[in-house]
Design a protein that fits this description.
This protein has four helices and three strands. The chain has 166 residues and is α+β, with helices and mostly antiparallel strands. It has one domain.
């Protein structure tokens, strides 16, 4: 295996590890917030966080966005790149989920390295979507491309009326 292939494989493994960590972190945040809202008796908040957890579980690791670490004006930042297949409403939802820890220090203790600032960029990442997602989780342009044979067809979750939590 040449050096170029090794570097590409190493980057793929790093990307997958980062997506897995993001997936697990979002599951954990939603689970904690479910407990918080159960204890408070907040039915609306409870419903929202249950829907968030369900959405994260349906998206799987493959539905998490990619990030690239760069230096901007002497500061390390993460450039967040959306997925070409994922509905754009997920960007705002996950921005909200990812900021919950900093907005609720009494619930989430800051442990570990300082969190890098995230910069959302218009650049998209292309990869095969996870199977069995509801059609409502897809970007309309991606569905159109699928119907025109420009991207491979994927299997949708049958009899689903899932909406993206708001």
């Amino acid at each position: 295996m040449n050096a170029e292939k090794k570097a590409a494989r190493k980057q793929q493994n790093k990307d997958r590890t980062n997506r897995k960590a993001k997936f697990e972190r979002r599951q954990a945040i939603a689970s904690v917030m479910i407990e918080v809202h159960e204890k408070k008796g907040d039915v609306q908040g409870l419903q929202f966080w249950r829907e968030v957890l369900e959405a994260v579980d349906i998206l799987t690791i493959g539905g998490m966005s990619d990030e690239e670490e760069v230096t901007e004006e002497n500061e390390r930042v993460r450039l967040v790149k959306d997925l070409d297949f994922r509905h754009p409403d997920f960007r705002e939802l996950f921005r909200r989920v990812d900021n919950v820890r900093t907005r609720n220090p009494s619930i989430f203790r800051n442990i570990g390295r300082k969190r890098m600032r995230r910069v959302y960029v218009p650049e998209m990442t292309s990869r095969q979507p996870p199977p069995n997602m509801p059609s409502s989780y897809y970007c309309q342009e991606y569905l159109d491309s699928m119907n025109q044979g420009e991207v491979p067809n994927v299997k949708f979750q049958k009899d689903s009326d899932f909406t993206i939590p708001r």
